[in-house]
């Protein structure tokens, strides 16, 4: 795991938007997840797991918005974990430290 956003609350779901998960850019920056990077999303509330890609939402919005097909995997208010992975050499793995962002109310960092 390279970066993770833990304890996020889904703020919206839009079936008619073009794919992805929209994430507050501040949370992307803190977790090291890049726009258009592949992410795994685990819905803690209902057990769903899926993969999509991240796109930026406005800074400070606290937005976690599931778009298009992903919108069928969660409802507003569901708690999710978002993670990105990287392939590392054994040498890199020895010193690797993932960026983990823990969230609290309104998707703000603890």
Provide a descriptive summary of the structure in words.
With 110 residues, the protein is mainly beta. It has one domain (3-105): Barwin-like endoglucanases, CATH 2.40.40.20. The chain is 12% helix and 43% strand. The protein contains two helices and nine strands. It has a nine-stranded mixed β-sheet with strand order 2-6-3-5-4-7-1-8-9. Strand 4 and strand 5 form a beta hairpin. It is globular and about 45 Å long. The mean pLDDT is 96.
From the structure above, extract its key features.
110 residues; mainly beta; Barwin-like endoglucanases; 2 helices; 9 strands; 12% helix; globular
Indicate the topology.
Blueprint: E1 3-9, E2 12-14, E3 21-24, H1 25-31, E4 38-43, E5 49-57, E6 64-67, E7 79-84, H2 90-95, E8 99-104, E9 108-109
Parallel strand pairs: 1-8, 2-6, 3-5
Antiparallel strand pairs: 1-7, 3-6, 4-5, 4-7, 8-9
Q: Summary?
A:
By secondary structure, the chain is mainly β. The chain contains two helices and nine strands, in the order E-E-E-H-E-E-E-E-H-E-E. It has one domain: Barwin-like endoglucanases, CATH 2.40.40.
